[in-house]
Amino acid sequence: MKMMPGITTRFAPSPSGPLHVGHLLAALQARRLADAHGGRCLLRVEDIDTRAQHAGYLALMYEDLEWLGLRFDGEVMVQTRRFGVYRAVLEELRRQGLLYPCFCTRSEIKAQVAEMGRAPHATLGFLYPGTCRRLSADAVAEKLAAGVPHTWRLDMQRVQDAIGCPTWHDMHRGTQRCVPTLYGDVVLARKDFPASYHLAVVVDDAAQRVSHVTRGADLFESTHIHRALQGVLGLPVPQYCHHALLRDNAGKRLAKRDGARSIASLRQAGYSPRQVLESLQLALDRGGIWWV
Ligand code: GLU
Question: Which domains are present in the chain?
Answer without folding.
Answer: 8-81+244-285 (3.40.50.620), 84-190 (3.90.800.10)
